[in-house]
């Protein structure tokens, strides 16, 4: 931007690190690098202005959520997603959702020989030289910002136009395309002059009115400005964070810093010192306490010469409300934040807010009317140290963070290495609602996706009962479910392939433990494999599939190899008889017999399957291993069966209670190693952070971590075990869970590529909030399930209708 007085201004967007990264000590260590930014970016007499822009979100921010709901063929998923979109839209309409943007402008005064003004039109050479100089300074500043731990990009012409436009027209949802004057087609005449769309005419699309005594009116928005009257005597890193705490709506927090000439400052201090010296040190003079204190401060300031630069600085807040009432509410909130920072009485302007409003406009080159004179370290304290996380450009679900801005999130995003995730949270943290909410969004965005969930507490039962193409498989002695592991997936197949044969051998080894002698184990493997092939051969013409008792009988009589008819070696025959004896504990009157020696009454072919092991006694390791084998085998089949382009989700709840042996853990590790290639997202939920230690170096495969509230005593161990940033020790105990409204989780994502390099952790504290309809669909407490059962029964078994009626009765017409 070229100003009328001949100065130029350049701008750049920057993104501070998120809240989850830095403790106050970490931020203080970064101040040395920020000093370099201020020393290089702000030469003597130049001004840097940082804008922390907090703007009210528009309904377009959640239009993708509504779009997914409208295109999803599953009526339940569609309805739950639609009510979620309505919830977010209602919060946006009430002004409770904002989005953050950070940018800065810096003035550049051309060299004396290149100086020009609007009265003395510049030559092309002067303009070109001045612009090249400004672009070089912009590139250097952006590089210094990146070196200081910020993400920074230079602003282009359209960016500058947008920021100016949205500031001057706060009621407009977005800025139009900027049209350079020379590209504008002359279409009419005004007052005999050609009608060319100058920059000012493009920017001033809203009328202004300052007739009101309490504020300025910009279009249909009410505007006021507050300034900090003085800087506190002691500042600390993150000063601005206190100013923006719990703000939502449309605000601009504007910090201006104009660097003073070091030589002038030195002369000024020396002059003041000499004046005060005579009033304090002269013989016969009784010094006043005020003069003594001032002399001491000046002498301390002189010690900073050569180490610190001095600035003229100001801090102001521009508030934009939809009406006078909202504006007053925002002013009270902003004043409260200022007073907590001991910043003196906030200055308000009334009808004169118009002058301050335009003076603080981006790229206007103006300066606030209230300044103080801090040194570099204090100015750095005014710089935004941390910011809310924006999430990703693509998102299946939109969360809201603590700062009331939106976070787009998707497990399958190009910005992360894998789609695997973990949820670590103690009981009662809202973990089940989080996972169901996430999968509801993912299945709505990807209607052809596959979902497999295994759970020990029946938390997901209602969700799977309500959605389409779903199968619930209940394990336990009271279960009516029967699954024959000898079933072949392909109806036309007569013999098992290599994968199926290996799976059956592994299943039989649950009951026939392998001997320690490797030679004996080899004989048994041959005997079992030959017996399996023999029963498939003998049942090739039968209508039913072979089962476990058929294998037992075959092992007791088999004496010839099936492929060539030759007589088996005595050691193999002996091994077959020995294995048959040990297999007997899975047959007859054995408690597991009716589940493992049976014909199937369900088929594992649905796209969404829920494996409930709720009915297995806690100490029944044998039945757990049987269930785990069937689940693991199904997961492998699904991963290989569906095309890689189809999203596949696998989730283990209460992981450490389900995977208990070394072999089972090894099986999960093998899955993790190859799941990325198959397009599978593996998730696990647990109450204990030490469950992650099971995976060893494979812990890095989990790109997404959701961590719930832990007490101060436990949080320290959680941070250490999960290798979280230090500041999480302070954040985790503060996470909140408001029953019936929302639950908070710390979301950490291991980003790669453009998001900051492989291994970089980004994230924020999110609030998981669902509509009343979804909340009651997902909740799994005993009394909640009992109420749902009653309403669903009254609705004739229609789950969605029953839960809707329940919510309407409880909350008077609000879903």
Account of the protein in words:
There is one protein chain. The protein is elongated, with a radius of gyration of 35 Å. 41% of the residues are buried. Helix 17 (548-557) packs antiparallel against helix 18 and helix 26 (782-794) crosses helix 27 (799-811). Strands 13, 14, 15, 16, 17, 18, 19, 20, 21, 22, 23 and 24 form a twelve-stranded mixed β-sheet that branches. Helix content is 40%, strand content 18%. It has 27 helices and 24 strands. The longest helix is centred in the N-terminal third of the chain and has 24 residues, at 124-147. By secondary structure, it is α+β, with helices and mostly antiparallel strands. Among the domains are: 263-308; 391-471 and 606-769, 3-Layer(aba) Sandwich (Rossmann fold), CATH 3.40.50; 482-601, no CATH class; 781-815, no CATH class. Pfam families: DUF87.
Structural class: alpha+beta
Helix content percent band: 40-55%
User: How many strands?
Assistant: 24
CATH architecture of one domain: 3-Layer(aba) Sandwich
Regions with pLDDT < 50 over 5+ consecutive residues? 753-758
Global geometry: elongated
The helix count comes to 27
CATH homologous superfamily classification of one domain: P-loop containing nucleotide triphosphate hydrolases
Report the average pLDDT across residues.
85
Protein name: DUF87 domain-containing protein
InterPro entries: HerA_central, P-loop_NTPase, T4SS_component
């Amino acid at each position: 931007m070229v100003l009328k007085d001949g100065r130029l201004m350049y701008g750049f967007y920057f993104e501070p690190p998120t809240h989850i990264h830095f403790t106050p000590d970490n931020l203080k260590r970064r101040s040395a690098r920020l000093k370099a930014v201020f020393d290089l970016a702000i030469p003597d007499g130049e001004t840097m202005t940082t804008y922390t822009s907090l703007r009210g979100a528009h309904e377009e921010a959640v239009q993708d959520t509504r779009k997914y709901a409208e295109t999803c063929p599953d009526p339940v998923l569609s309805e739950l997603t639609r009510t979620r979109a309505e919830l977010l839209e209602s919060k946006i309409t009430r002004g409770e959702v904002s989005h953050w943007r950070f940018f800065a402008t810096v003035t550049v005064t051309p060299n004396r020989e290149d100086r020009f003004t609007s009265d003395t039109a510049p030559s092309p050479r002067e303009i070109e030289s001045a612009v090249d100089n400004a672009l070089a300074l912009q590139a250097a500043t952006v590089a210094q910002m990146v070196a200081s731990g910020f993400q920074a990009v230079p602003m282009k012409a359209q960016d500058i136009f947008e920021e100016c436009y949205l500031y001057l027209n706060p009621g407009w949802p977005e800025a139009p395309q900027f049209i350079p004057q020379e590209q504008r087609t002359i279409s009419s005449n005004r007052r005999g002059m050609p009608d060319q769309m100058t920059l000012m005419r493009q920017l001033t699309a809203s009328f202004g009115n300052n007739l009101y005594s309490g504020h300025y009116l910009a279009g249909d928005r009410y505007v006021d400005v507050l300034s900090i009257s003085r800087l506190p005597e002691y500042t600390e890193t993150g000063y601005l964070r206190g100013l923006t705490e719990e703000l939502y709506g449309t605000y601009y927090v504007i910090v201006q810093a104009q660097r003073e000439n070091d030589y002038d400052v030195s002369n000024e201090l020396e002059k003041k010192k000499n004046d005060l010296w005579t009033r304090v040190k002269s013989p016969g003079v009784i010094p006043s306490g005020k003069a003594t204190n001032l002399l001491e401060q000046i002498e301390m300031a002189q010690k900073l010469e050569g180490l610190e630069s001095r600035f003229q600085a100001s801090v102001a807040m521009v508030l934009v409300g939809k009406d006078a009432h909202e504006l007053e509410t925002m002013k009270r909130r902003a004043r409260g934040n200022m007073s907590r920072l001991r910043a003196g009485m906030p200055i308000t302007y009334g009808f004169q807010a118009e002058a301050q409003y335009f003076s603080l406009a981006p790229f206007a080159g103006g300066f606030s009317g209230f300044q103080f004179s801090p040194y570099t370290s204090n100015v750095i304290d005014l710089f935004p140290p941390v910011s809310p996380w924006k999430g990703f450009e693509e998102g299946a679900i939109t969360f809201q963070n603590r700062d009331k801005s939106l976070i787009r999130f998707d497990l399958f995003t190009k910005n992360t290495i894998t789609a695997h995730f973990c949820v670590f949270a103690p009981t009662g943290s809202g973990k089940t609602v989080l996972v169901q909410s996430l999968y509801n969004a993912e299945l709505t965005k990807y209607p052809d996706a596959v979902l497999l969930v295994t759970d020990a507490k029946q938390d997901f039962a209602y969700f799977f009962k309500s959605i389409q193409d779903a199968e619930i498989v209940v394990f336990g002695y009271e279960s009516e479910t029967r699954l024959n592991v000898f079933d072949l997936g392909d109806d036309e197949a007569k013999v098992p392939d290599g994968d199926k044969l290996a799976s059956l051998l592994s299943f039989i080894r649950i009951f026939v433990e392998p001997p320690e002698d490797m030679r004996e184990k080899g004989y048994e493997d041959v005997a079992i494999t030959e017996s399996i092939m023999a029963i498939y051969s003998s049942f090739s013409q039968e209508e039913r599939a072979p089962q476990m008792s058929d294998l037992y009988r075959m092992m007791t009589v088999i004496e010839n190899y099936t492929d060539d008819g030759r007589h088996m070696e005595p050691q193999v025959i002996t091994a077959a008889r020995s294995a048959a004896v040990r297999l007997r504990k899975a047959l007859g009157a054995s408690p597991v017999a009716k589940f493992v020696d049976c014909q199937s009454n369900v088929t594992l072919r649905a796209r969404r399957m829920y494996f409930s092991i709720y009915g297995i006694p806690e100490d029944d390791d044998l039945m757990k291993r049987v269930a785990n084998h069937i689940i693991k085998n199904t997961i492998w089949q699904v991963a290989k069966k569906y095309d890689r382009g189809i999203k596949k989700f696998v989730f283990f709840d209460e992981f450490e209670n389900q995977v208990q042996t070394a072999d089972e853990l090894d099986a999960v590790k093998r899955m993790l190693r190859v799941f990325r290639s198959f397009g599978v997202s593996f998730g696990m939920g647990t109450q204990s952070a030490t469950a992650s230690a099971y995976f060893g170096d494979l812990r890095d495969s989990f790109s997404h971590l959701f961590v719930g509230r832990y007490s101060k005593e436990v949080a320290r161990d959680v941070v250490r075990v999960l290798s979280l940033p230090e500041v999480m020790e302070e954040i985790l105990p503060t996470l909140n869970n408001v029953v019936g409204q929302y639950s908070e989780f710390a979301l950490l994502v291991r980003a790669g590529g453009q998001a900051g390099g492989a291994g970089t952790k980004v994230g924020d504290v999110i609030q998981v909030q669902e509509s009343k309809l979804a909340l009651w669909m997902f909740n799994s407490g005993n009394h909640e399930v009992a109420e749902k059962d009653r309403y669903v029964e009254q609705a004739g078994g229609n789950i969605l209708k029953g839960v809707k009626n329940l919510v309407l009765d409880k909350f008077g017409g609000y879903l």
